What does this fold into?
Amino acid sequence: MAFSAATANFNPLNTPSLRSHDNHLVTSVSPSPFFGSTAKLRLSSSPKFNVHRRSGSVVAVSEAVKEKKPKSTPNLLITKEEGLELYEDMVLGRAFEDMCAQMYYRGKMFGFVHLYNGQEAVSTGFIKLLKQQDSVVSTYRDHVHALSKGVPARAVMSELFGKTTGCCRGQGGSMHMFSREHNLLGGFAFIGEGIPVATGAAFTSKYKREVLKEVDCDHVTLAFFGDGTCNNGQFYECLNMAALWKLPIVFVVENNLWAIGMSHLRSTSDPQIYKKGPAFGMPGVHVDGMDVLKVREVAKEAISRARRGEGPTLVECETYRFRGHSLADPDELRDPAEKSRYTARDPITALKKYIIESNLASEAELKAIDKKIDEVVEDAVEFADESPVPPRSQLLENVFADPKGFGIGPDGRYRCEDPKFTQGTAHV
Amino acid sequence: MFRVKYVFLQFVCLLQEKKEREREMALRNIMGKRVGIGLMGSRALSTATCDVESGSAKSINLYSAINQALHVALETDPRAFVFGEDVSFGGVFRCTTGLADRFGKARVFNTPLCEQGIVGFGIGLAAMGNRAIAEIQFADYIYPAFDQIVNEAAKFRYRSGNQFNCGGLTIRAPYGAVGHGGHYHSQSPEAFFCHVPGIKVVIPRSPRQAKGLLLSCIRDPNPVVFFEPKWLYRLAVEEVPEHDYMLPLSEAEVIRQGSDITLVGWGAQLSIMEQACIEAEKDGISCELIDLKTLIPWDKETVEASVRKTGRVLISHEAPVTGGFGAEISASIVECCFLRLEAPVARVCGLDTPFPLVFEPFYMPTKNKILDAIKATVNY
It folds into this structure.
């Protein structure tokens, strides 16, 4: 489809024509039938002649969703099941995060919690296309990535509360969700630290397929990260490696324009991140991250590209976080007008509208899903509340592979077995 | 439990203010104008004639003290710059509030999210004669910059044969536990940097110390890594003089006199050790508490003199015990005071695990652990 055309056209040395970012690509890319918008998928192929001036606003490729009336033979992008699945996933993400905020302010969870409100379309759009064996690497804003990947809400909530039943047995907390079963290779508190890890995971998949001849191994890795990370060295190192070795990985940039209090436009020489892909030899795509259907279309192509063995893709999703950077962030720096502009493009309301207007499902069915999700989230909180706190012995476990690593006391026994572990009068 | 800490800090600080004043007066008498102490000082320093007696003092917390120090530094040197992630709106801990408005965006600016780039860039600025004050948002994030600090900053003067130096570089980073930080917002990486000849590591314990020490670090002709205890940013409140003053580097301070055991620490840990000392006092154990202030080059003489007096020493820090800076102090003390020691050198430090999230109270060297160790050492 569009991507292979782009890579065929991509030849940085032989494109002397002035190509400003406002021009659309060659006509071999037919505009995808994005229902409800007249936008075209834009692929950047020329790294030279960047006529871009740093403007005050991010130029969105796709314009705001313009609703077209459904035709009699609907050229719908999704089936009813898919639509409901997407809706349910996004509502789960939203409801869960709202509950997190409540629990935080009630003191049930602590630490630094970063919420994903507003960005659900990216997580749902991408992760719902994956199989269980595909890997996802995330950032500290990882609750919803975990939920979309299939980690039960109960496990995530318990992990936030720091209980043993959490997905990491309470060791990691909000920013470090891991799941071997669902191949979630973590939340990373440090920006950019996950990208090399994802690159390595993608290499494994390619190795298994080509060297170990497990022909049906076409596992893809998704690396999620933010706009601030795109100024970090690790990002560029991995783009290079992935393109060099044609790894089955998709780099997903959740560009929400703000890195805590630093605006993306003021900290990046060329704010259009998708252009960095072709510089390394992979297609760079910009998509409206507030519209789950568009994200899904782009994701489908990027993921199948990776599955076919054609290499990595860089996808920039223009999105926005409705809340502050973390629950401790007063969020005073962002312009309220900007916030309201994006709140009007709430992905959940947009999808709901689409589903109802194309008669995929009724309002009642969607409300039923809302209710079900509320129950799931409440159940998760109850479960987490009732779960036990991890025992003290867990503190020394897993530092090394050998449990007797540094946990040995002077008498040669595993230190946590020592009844005098906290030395008598110490507070426990 | 820990909210009591700042009250003690205030109490302690008022008590030792008199002692400090005397000490600074003595220093002034010896050295005339106050000049920062540098090991290989060839760079001209701004000399702040410090009159500790005059000038008003206001009760402020740690981040305000650091803010004041930065204001003074930028005011007194037109070629000083402050940069880092999110510094222009004030920083995530409000240490840099008002700087961008006052000195302009050309001198106080945000950098993109690249620690390696930030420190390397700072080294370049310093090499060209500027004072670069780089902020690393959390000490846990200093590791990408570790290469630049160890391989470049520390060796710049040495390998260029003193043609260039990056003495104008100061790297500030909030370190240490904060109660809910977890793995990546609570680390204490001072030990890694203490192993590198060529840089200095300074850690203040209170607002008053912070302002003076930070100004000394900025004006010191060597690259300095300045760790600020983030737990104390709001919690520690003290009377801080409003004028420009510097405190000497590489001088440890005895903040509590005693005769039975010497306790050595730095940063936020001192307030916990203070509480342990007070409790030990009730059992009749008189503790001498020393604040190292500068970790390298550290003041061996003061600690040695104190150990010769008491015969016992206990070191406490938040970083894991194995390979922490306490090990260096312990080895040095044993070397010089072996025959005087009456008990093994005790170290009450963090456990040898990554900094935990839920288990933080068990990991930390708490007052009771220190108390137990004091008793065990005294009764050896």
Q: What stands out?
A: The longest strand of chain B covers residues 313-320. Residues 24-53 of chain B have pLDDT under 50 and may be disordered.
